[in-house]
Amino acid sequence: MMAPLKVEDYLSELLSVTPVLPTQVLPLAEALGRVCARDYQARFPVPPFTNSAMDGFAVRFEDLTSFPLTLQVAGEVAAGASGDLECGPGQAIRIMTGAPLPKGADTVVPVELTDQPAGAAPLPQQVVINEPVKPQANVRRQGENVQVGGPVFPAGQVLSATALSALASVGFGELEVFARPRVAVISTGDELVAAGEPLGPGQIPDSNSVLLRGLLQAAGYEVEVLRTSSDTPDDFAQLLASVADDGFDVAITTGGVSAGAYDVVKAVTAQQGFSFHKVAMQPGKPQGFGQLSGRDRKCLMLALPGNPVSVFVSFHTFVVPILGAMQGIPVERLTSLGARGRSATFPESFKSPAGRRQFVPVRFDNADASVVERTHTLGSGSHLVASLPLAEGLAIIPEEWKQVEAGVSVPVLDLRLPWF
Ligand SMILES: Nc1nc2c(c(=O)[nH]1)N[C@H]1C(S)=C(S)[C@@H](COP(=O)(O)OP(=O)(O)OC[C@H]3O[C@@H](n4cnc5c(N)ncnc54)[C@H](O)[C@@H]3O)O[C@H]1N2
Ligand code: MOO
């Protein structure tokens, strides 16, 4: 019998057949959560022009020689004004926050340091400056945040709200992003009934498709749950044949991949060149993958085991990196825990299966996030779906360990953080 594959080796096999999807140009407002497809440099400087950081009076610093001091008010400039006014010697120009600094002025005196009231007030003829300010005080220079051509956002990073605001500020209204994979989810198993249906003998609710759809939808993916009319090989084969034609980039099946006499996924796809492996992990041991060929495209199919916690662990271990790779996230960021990696200890000891890397659903201690506890005393049991809502992390126990000792640090994948 073949030795089980290491988790990393199985993931590398998967990544080696994962295509990078084409890029597309989207209106900036629709690009949230997409992976940026090119490096962006500033088209506009930030700030785009030298402007005031305060409501007050623009002055020439050289005029501020003694206090109190009276200057002639030569005009006013509000935010959105052109800034053509000139501030001559002995003059001040009333100015609002964000308004362009008038020619000649180099310093802004906040209204609070003058004899003028804050807020709506008629433009005075004179202003008395009561206190000194530093040279160039309250002036935001053109380009002091970024100059034209300066780096703003790199390819391969997810476009967050802050990224979009930065890119809008430097002149972009459309962005080139990677296409987002469309995902099909298929539960298999004759014992499954839809959520809420009564259970006949030997039946269980289909929770896997609910879980996968939810994980994907919560991250903004387009996902469809597909069903077969029965778990016969013919019906299943027919469903798979339609998946790539229907434009899905990824298909995820659950169940039917171990050693059972009715393991339909394995039976049907093994004839289509799919690879099946035992991976040295618990839960999530039996895994398979292959390509479904459609009329004009291929669809990468991941066949996950049927147990619900195995699905959850397999999703975070294999599906998330695949989705990232398809969208141009650099592979080294997908094969390490990266920013989601923490280190934590358990308050009690427990057994771990030797030879398999154990992924234990855990929650973080409220007071000290370097302590985790198992979400159920049965730990990483692959059927423990009812305690999954408590899982904030997956503790990762090395395959060499037979026992986890209390107080000994282990890596933890923090599920509360975004995937990439
Ligand atoms: N003789 C062996 N038996 C098993 C092995 C093995 O190596 N030799 N591996 C075990 C491991 S580990 C796992 S994991 C499971 C994987 O089994 P399958 O992928 O074939 O999945 P099924 O048999 O269809 O189902 C397993 C389990 O999960 C429940 N299930 C399935 N689908 C759903 C769903 N959509 N929603 C909720 N629950 C689901 C199903 O009722 C079973 O209880 O095989 C072991 N056996
Ligand atoms: O690998 Mo199975 O997922 O241990 O239960």
Automatic annotation (TrEMBL):
The keyword Metal-binding belongs to this UniProt entry's keyword annotation: yes
Any one Gene Ontology cellular component term annotated for this protein: cytosol
Cofactor(s), by name: Mg(2+)
GO biological process, one term: Mo-molybdopterin cofactor biosynthetic process
One Pfam family in the UniProt entry: MoCF_biosynth
Keyword terms of this UniProt record: Magnesium, Metal-binding, Molybdenum, Molybdenum cofactor biosynthesis, Transferase
Enzyme Commission number(s) of this protein: 2.10.1.1
Xref: PANTHER family: GEPHYRIN (PTHR10192:SF5), MOLYBDOPTERIN BIOSYNTHESIS PROTEIN (PTHR10192)
Protein family per UniProt: Belongs to the MoeA family.
Protein name: Molybdopterin molybdenumtransferase
